[in-house]
């Protein structure tokens, strides 16, 4: 039987966070151990009932199991799932259909899929599947998107240390979804700021999953209200949950990549309330 770990985190408002110390912030908003061998890990957030997880099949094929908290016969009875591989070559099988995923490839699975498994092509270089899930009101078709196969944007500049490529793998102009959106942002050499100017979007939450962070390096993730900012130090393959009321931005000790995942009532990617650097406190 697949080893599945589940953690439930209730929503926290901005007034409470003003009094948090470092460990309280990390306990509430950092998902530090998503990627563990032969395990599926889930963190259930009560922001948009968004779920963030990881599946690392090394010695066995892992099965997507339902959870008591979902009160559903199968995991995808009333949910949709986004998957991005940040490891070696792997295969996701959904109701008998195999979807090969190489490094940074994406896969969308709509609600109604009953049997989903995760496997690696080579045990020595296992796949590392990063998972996002949100409630779904209807079923849309499964779709694989190879890295670079979605919509691509080039933003920022070396002058402001934020030159980056944004790969919109799972937005509504690429994949039809209920509310889930995902993509990968890759910073260029010499750039370290991932999102500046910082922004909020009160109509949806977001989760940042940091990867390609060397072991000796780190990323400082900024969150909180624009005039009440807080920070969390993040290492490789860790994720930060960003509530709708919070900004989300980060600066690394060298360049890196991150996966952004969103869910909420608005599928307009550009729906953002920006805050200039000189407005932040």
UniProtKB/TrEMBL annotation:
Zn(2+) binds at residues 199, 201, 206, 248. Keywords: Isomerase, Metal-binding, Zinc. This is 4-deoxy-L-threo-5-hexosulose-uronate ketol-isomerase. Binds 1 zinc ion per subunit. It comes from Psychrosphaera aquimarina. The keyword Transmembrane does not apply. Pathway: Glycan metabolism; pectin degradation; 2-dehydro-3-deoxy-D-gluconate from pectin: step 4/5. Belongs to the KduI family. Pfam families: KduI. SUPFAM superfamilies: RmlC-like cupins. Its EC number is 5.3.1.17. Its cofactor is Zn(2+). The keyword Chloroplast does not apply. Catalyzes the isomerization of 5-dehydro-4-deoxy-D-glucuronate to 3-deoxy-D-glycero-2,5-hexodiulosonate. GO terms for molecular function: 4-deoxy-L-threo-5-hexosulose-uronate ketol-isomerase activity. It comes from the Bacteria. It catalyses: 5-dehydro-4-deoxy-D-glucuronate = 3-deoxy-D-glycero-2,5-hexodiulosonate. It is an enzyme of class 5 (isomerase). NCBIfam families: PRK00924.1.
